[in-house]
Amino acid sequence: MKLEQQRMPAVTNDRFRLHYHLMPPQGWMNDPNGFVYFQGYYHLFYQYHPYGVEWGPMHWGHARSQDLLHWETLPPALAPDSEADESGCFSGSAIVKGNRLFLIYTGHHVPDESKPDDFWQTQNVAVSDDGIHFYKLATNPVIETPPADNSQHFRDPKVFERDGQYYLVLGSQLAATQTGRALLYQSTNLVDWEYQGVITAASTASEAGFMWECPDFFRLNGQDVLLLSPQGIEATEKENLNLYQTSYLAGQFDFQTLDYQHGNLQELDHGHDFYAAQTMLAPDGRRIVVGWMDMWEAEFPEQADGWAGTMTLPRELTWHAGQLCMLPVAEVTQLRTQQVIDEEWHGTKRNLPVPDAQHLELHLHTKLASWQGSQLTLQFQAGDQQLQVTYHKAQHEIIVTRAGQDAQRFAKVQPQVELDLQIWTDTSSVEIFVNHGAAVFSERFYPLSAPEVTLAADAPVTVQLTEYQLH
Ligand code: FRU
């Protein structure tokens, strides 16, 4: 297939284009890849199909930024043009060694296009000296075959350094039981990799997934955290409701014995649109995570306009009270152009003044002890597009309801004396952070006219309200 002769779709309408999130210049985007800091810039790559608004032969799209908010589009870093990756340059990661940037990614290979499930996957390396032009190693693949007990699902390497050694965590599937697992490899030079074994594995597919995609492994506040995107977990009434999840385990891992003592698998984000998250360590020590703010098999209204997919805001991860919390990176305050509200309000219903409801930052804070009510709702409404965030006091629960099918998503919060909500809207997204990031909901939301924003409670409530207009 001659890729360069294909036509690229053009963006024909900017009604859903976001202002401060990374999205493709045109065409299709999925997973974040290769999130790294190199020579003064944050680099974020992504699964990219430039020649269509749907998933197709994967390239690595590329952008860089100095503040994690304003992204400069660079030429695609990788195209599926070598034997090992001729059906796609799948997800992977990046690391800086000396003055060079190394990308480690999965080459997807389908020998017979009429049988797309008969594929094989290898791990490959590309390098760059300037962070713009990348060269694939002539000796690729660097990992040619999965372990003997693995199925052909063997992808999404995340590279990291620990005590002078390089490691890779890889997503995979145990062939015999068709269950997901994460594998560990070790190297001294990023090119020669030695298989160490299994970090941990799903016990059953329905509980923990038939395939673990996009793993990441890092240490945060004394915890060894394994982030993964499991496919196939059975939904319960209020959990694992998306087609696929991004979840994590936390505990203590021994790199010598591969013993991993960890707690239960927990979802990282409770919204409709969050997948394949990847982290990076910033120069100042922050652990920053970005997810694909969409879901496989969802509707993408922006496809009609020549593009599809966006990333979440970059979020700082912290470990607090036995769980991961995430809040937008501190840089987001730079997006504020004007403060619209800063007041203590008391009442049961209020339409908020919103010069531009699709680009705002909203902060609501209320003391629960003095409030007699049981429900507090913030609502965005534009025609038949509606998104509600409701706090149920007795159940200590947040419910996000987005008009349409499969409407509700849930999160429990710790019983506490105050409720804190922080919300960022961008043209076709709403990101909701509850109690300083203890529960997070990422949502695509597609209003065609300016939404009204209403706050309502079933008994008078006192709320400290802050609102900023954003770029
Ligand atoms: C996750 C995923 C990865 C794969 C990539 C292909 O969304 O399926 O496992 O590498 O997307 O685009």
Automatic annotation (TrEMBL):
SMART domains recorded: Glyco_32
Domain of life: Bacteria
GO CC list: cytoplasm
Catalytic function, reaction form: Hydrolysis of terminal non-reducing beta-D-fructofuranoside residues in beta-D-fructofuranosides
GO molecular function terms listed in the Swiss-Prot or TrEMBL record: beta-fructofuranosidase activity
EC number(s) per entry: 3.2.1.26
Residue ranges constituting the Glycosyl hydrolase family 32 C-terminal domain according to the UniProt record: 331-449
SUPFAM superfamilies: Arabinanase/levansucrase/invertase (SSF75005), Concanavalin A-like lectins/glucanases (SSF49899)
Main enzyme class: hydrolase
UniProt keyword annotations, A-Z: Carbohydrate metabolism, Cytoplasm, Glycosidase, Hydrolase
Subcellular location: Cytoplasm
GO BP: carbohydrate metabolic process
Any Pfam family matching the protein: Glyco_hydro_32C
Keyword check for Coiled coil: no
Free-text function comment from the UniProt entry: Enables the bacterium to metabolize sucrose as a sole carbon source.
Family as reported in the entry's similarity comment: Belongs to the glycosyl hydrolase 32 family.
NCBIfam families named among the record's database cross-references: scrB_fam
Name of protein: Sucrose-6-phosphate hydrolase
Organism: Fructilactobacillus cliffordii
Lineage: Bacteria, Bacillati, Bacillota, Bacilli, Lactobacillales
